[in-house]
Amino acid sequence: TPLEFEGAYDPHVWFDVELWIMAVEVVGNTLMKADKENKNNYQKRMKNYISQLKALSTEIKTTIASIPAEKRYLITAHDAFNYYAQAYSIKVAGLQGISTESKAGIKDIQNIVKLIIKNSIPTIFVESSVSAKTIQAVQASVKSKGRKVSIGEPLFSDALGERGTLNGTYVGMMKHNLNAIYNGLIKGDIKNE
C-alpha cells in the first residue's frame, strides 16, 4: 500500500524489500514479454536476485527485531524511511519531510530534541544525499540540555554508494544501512560524538 505523506505519496518504496521484490517481478516479467529470445536469461537472473532479496529481507527483520523495542528509533534529516519503519517495526522521525529540498524549522528541531531526551536515543543519523547541518543542530541542542546523542554512520536514502563498490548496489546499500542502524542503536559504534 503506498504511504501518503504531506499530501503526496512517499516515493521511498525501495526501503521495504518485500515491495522491492514485487517491483523486480514486474520489471522481469515485462522484459521477458518484450524480449522473448532472452526470456530464460531474464527468468534465471530474476529468480537469483529475488532469492538474494528474500535473504536480505529476513536479515533485516531479524536484526531489527534484535534491537529492544524501546531503542528502535531511527532519527534522520528527512523522512525517507517510512516504508522501512512499516516493514521492520522501527519508529522513525525525520526533520524535513519526504523532500530533501525542504528545510527543518526550529519547532521541528525542538520536537526531535524532546523525543531524543525522553527516549534516551543514543544515535541520530545523517544521510548521504542530505546536508548534515540540521542533524548537527539537533546534536548541539541535545548537548545544550545536558544530554548526549551521537551521529551515526551516514545512511543511504535517495542514492546508492559509488559505482563499483558494495554500497553501489541495492543489496549492499541496504546492508550498509542495517549495520549502521544496528551499530548506532545497540553497539554505540559511532562516527561522530
Task: Compose a concise summary of this entry.
The chain is built from 6 helices and 6 strands. The protein has 193 residues and is mainly alpha-helical.
Q: What does it look like?
A:
- This protein has 193 residues and is mainly alpha-helical.
- Helix content is 50%, strand content 8%.
- A two-stranded antiparallel sheet has the order 1-2. It has a two-stranded parallel ribbon with strand order 3-4.
- The longest helix is centred in the first third of the chain and has 27 residues, at 39-65.
- It is elongated.
- 28% of the residues are buried.
- The model is unreliable at 97-102 and 189-193 (pLDDT under 50).
Mean pLDDT: 85
- Indicate the multimeric state: single chain
Shape: elongated
* Spatial separation of the terminal alpha carbons: 38 Å
What spatial order of strands do you see in the largest sheet? 1-2
The tally of helices reads 6
Question: What does the secondary structure layout of this molecule look like, with pairings?
Answer:
Blueprint: E1 4-5, E2 8-9, H1 17-34, H2 39-65, E3 73-76, H3 82-88, E4 91-94, H4 106-119, E5 123-124, H5 133-144, E6 150-151, H6 170-187
Helix pairs in contact: 1-2, 2-6, 4-5
